[in-house]
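[step 3/7] fold_predict: job queued, chain A
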Amino acid sequence: MSETIFSKIIRGEVPCHRVYEDAQVLAFLDLFPLSVGHTLVIPKEAKATMAELSDESAAGLGRALPRVCRAVMQATGAGAYNLLQNNGSLAHQAVMHVHVHIIPRYEGGEGLGLVWRPGKLESAQGALLAAKIASALG
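[step 4/7] structure written:
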């Protein structure tokens, strides 16, 4: 994987406003926040997408996220929050290093804006797709 700004932040070559760190994970404030308290949580393992991440790093990320979410909510007083995690440029990933955004939501709309355009999953199509995914899992 090529070098990213997150690799430099992990090594301390680029400063950040750290809010949490352990052996596998680093969390820091986003420099271009969508709302007050917008925080990034990243694994120290340099992989571009969640599918490439080792089980150990994914578990570390999973352990840290609830703890950091609670702290962000307590510190900001936000009423809610979004978790956003993009994988690949078609999914709007800008930095090719796994990262999860914790984006606090406030009355008045500050935070993540979404347009949700749901389709409909037909039963036969769902059964076929579910079987295919289950088979890929082994």
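[step 5/7] annotate
Strands lie at 18-21, 25-29, 39-43, 80-84, 100-105.
The chain has a mean pLDDT of 95.
exit 0
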